[in-house]
Specification:
Blueprint lengths: L3 H30 L8 H11 L8 E4 L6 H10 L2 E5 L3 H14 L4 E3 L13 E4 L3 H14 L5 E5 L10 E3 L8 E5 L1
Parallel strand pairs: 1-2, 1-4, 2-3, 4-5
Antiparallel strand pairs: 5-7, 6-7
Length: 182
């Protein structure tokens, strides 16, 4: 008859193997989709909180187009009362985002799928923090689908064709956030 310690050890080993599997899967997804995982910094959030307060974002529908662990979804839901949806193709990140939703009692919707399949006309705010080659593809999608009043928040990498309505920056902050209205 196995002891409790033996069973606990087996469970711990399975958990470690599962976490390692998710980590490797996450790396493979980053390579395949050419999107390394880059989380928004807390300093980004502080600066955005100060500048975005003038936009009436309450009850607006927001999409984060590669939401990672859902940090920006949590930020926009808690700080501004947005109805948030995040698209994340990586299994590990989408699971972590769902766990954080439960822990913080938030309502963000996490969709484990490629964001190119969604219609952007369903959203009032589009948040992107992606590298330039993907930003160019998203800009084409925005031009086709975004409604005239859609707000686009591009963290660090600006859209190529569109002119920002506002650029948020801070002396201590290395990156800029670009605000667009389509």
């Amino acid at each position: 008859m196995p002891t409790i310690e033996f069973i606990a050890g087996i469970i711990a080993l399975i958990a470690i193997i599962f976490i390692a599997y998710l980590y490797v899967l996450s790396i493979v997804n980053s390579i395949i989709y050419k999107v390394p995982q880059v989380a928004s910094f807390n300093s980004d959030l502080r600066v955005m909180r100060k500048w975005l307060v003038k936009y009436n974002l309450k009850w607006k529908k927001l999409i984060d187009m590669w939401s990672g662990t859902g940090k920006m979804l949590r930020f926009f839901e808690r700080e501004f009362g947005c109805i948030t949806t995040g698209y994340e193709i990586d299994l590990a990140n989408s699971l972590i985002a769902r766990i954080f939703n439960k822990i913080f009692k938030l309502n963000a919707t996490i969709i484990r799928w490629n964001y190119f399949t969604t219609n952007l006309a369903d959203f009032d705010i589009v948040y992107i923090y992606l590298y330039p080659e993907l930003v160019a593809k998203i800009e084409e999608k925005l031009e086709q689908e975004a409604r005239p009043w859609t707000i686009v928040i591009a963290n660090a990498f600006k859209l190529i064709k569109a002119t920002p309505k506002e650029i948020i920056y801070d002396d201590k902050w290395k990156e800029e956030v670009y605000i667009y209205e389509f």
